[in-house]
Write a structure and sequence with these properties.
The protein has helices spanning 59-69, 78-82, 85-93, 106-126, 131-137, 140-145, 158-167, 172-182, 198-210, 224-238, 254-264, 281-291, 305-313, 329-343, 356-372, 415-421; strands at 7-14, 34-41, 47-54, 184-192, 215-219, 243-247, 271-273, 295-298, 319-320, 380-382, 396-397, 400-401. The protein is α/β, with parallel strands linked by helices. The relative contact order is 0.15. The radius of gyration is 20 Å and the shape is globular. Helix 12 (281-291) links the parallel strand 7 (271-273) and strand 8 (295-298).
Length: 423
């Protein structure tokens, strides 16, 4: 049965997380986790759901951007899109008038991501598979055919991407079985938001340890003496052998980042995340050289595959933190995952926002099964917020993501939740 996208609905959803300072960091002191939420209606009983994560005010701008793309989506047959997905992706990314507002970055790219992800959700549902399984079952050539290789062939060609995927094709079933048995490793950010009191941080660290967590992230980038005090608290609570990551959320200049991390290095951080402006490729490379062996992670605010390419080429990052809806949806994330494999870098997705855990688990699981074939140095972010609003919420067992089994991209929110927070 042919599936036609008959209508596109977009909602402005906002959760008042600023009341408890959940999600607070050095740059985002009062976040209200929000979503530009897309529903693709088909008239067949199947719907495609997707969202772009925002932080409150301005979400209405992203909603308006989604509406600007609607004419390219409504009336299209699903199979006409998925049979030549890279061409469809380029039609949105290169829309001749909307493109001027980007190009391929910012609010229009995020709006496009919400649409693209909704199409993948619909595609996975039509095949009765969770997205990670849909991707894992695709042939190397099918995966590569979904990717726009413009501007990145100096780093990764389609032929090289096929070769990477073919190398692991014969052993995918083994890793899929292991994934079903043990899940995918995760780390928790929920213990260390910047707005939390010292007492709350201590309590959350102890609760996380009791729950089996061994990888922890804390926010830094405020007053350095406060960062040192809080890092001492976290390190004392989690002990010397568990991993500690730090996240500055773009707060520092290059020199500030180097000086701060030299001071904070006494607490043995595994990485510093977003130490400076996300567009500063050479700044990241300078920081990475100066603070080694502390490593550098970034990506949640990398606008597109081109910026990731440059960070890899310049050796400005050690951990690739893709985001499901900052990049242009699944297709562009596939490009970055494959580039990371070419450069030998682990992919550790960002998931600090509503729905992002539900999203990125699928990308990490596909990466493990079909691309990296490894979990070494690979952990996916986990935050303990707002999962109760989803029809297929994440399942964490022994500090690992367990594979979702429900068809789709796990991003569909309960109707009552959408109604309760709709602006």
């Amino acid at each position: 049965m042919a599936i036609t996208i008959r209508d596109l609905e977009v909602l402005d959803l906002r959760f008042p997380t600023s009341r408890t300072l959940d999600g607070s960091d050095a740059m985002n002191k009062d976040p209200d986790y929000s979503a530009t939420y897309v529903i693709l209606k088909t008239g067949t009983g199947l719907e495609g759901h997707g969202l772009a994560f925002t932080n409150g005010r301005g979400n209405e701008i992203c909603v308006a951007a989604v509406r600007a793309y609607a004419h390219l989506v409504t009336g299209r047959r699903l199979d006409s899109i998925t049979s030549d997905f890279a061409t469809f992706w380029k039609q949105l990314a290169c829309e001749t008038q909307i493109r001027w507002l980007g190009p391929e970055k910012g609010v229009t790219h995020m709006a496009m991501a919400a649409i693209i992800n909704a199409i993948w959700d619909l595609y996975a549902k039509s095949k009765n598979k969770p997205l990670w399984k849909l991707l894992a079952d695709m042939t190397p050539r099918q995966i590569v055919s979904a990717i726009d290789f413009r501007y990145i062939t100096d780093a990764l060609t389609p032929e090289e991407a096929i070769e990477i995927l073919e190398k692991n094709e014969s052993t995918k079933a083994v890793r899929e079985a292991e994934l079903m048995r043990a899940g995918y490793p995760a780390y928790t950010t929920s213990v260390g938001w910047l707005g939390y009191s010292d007492e709350k941080v201590r309590r959350l660290c102890r609760e996380a340890l009791d729950a089996g967590w061994t990888n922890f992230k804390m926010k830094v980038g405020g007053d350095l003496n406060d960062d040192l005090r809080r890092a001492d608290i976290v390190r004392r609570e989690i002990g010397p052998h568990n991993k500690l990551m730090m996240d500055a959320n773009q707060r520092w200049d290059v020199g500030e980042a180097i000086n701060a991390m030299k001071a904070l290095s006494e607490f043995n951080p595994w990485w510093i995340e977003e130490p400076t402006n996300p567009d500063d490729v050479l700044g990241h490379a300078t920081i990475a050289r100066a603070i080694h062996p502390v490593r550098v992670a970034t990506g949640e605010n990398c606008a597109n595959r081109v910026l990731f390419k440059q960070l890899m080429q310049a050796r400005g990052i050690d951990f690739v933190q893709i985001d499901s809806c900052r990049l242009g949806g699944v297709n562009e994330n596939l490009a970055v995952i494959l580039m990371a494999a070419k450069f030998g870098l682990p992919v550790c997705p960002h998931a600090g926002g509503v729905g992002l855990c539900e999203y990125v688990q699928h990308l990490s699981m596909f990466d493990y099964i079909a691309v990296s074939a490894s979990t070494k140095d690979r952990i996916t972010e986990y935050v303990d917020h707002l999962h109760e609003h989803f029809l297929d919420p994440i399942v964490i067992r022994n500090a690992r993501y367990m594979p979702p089994l429900r068809p789709g991209y796990s991003i569909e929110m309960k109707p009552e939740s959408r109604k309760a927070v709709h602006i």
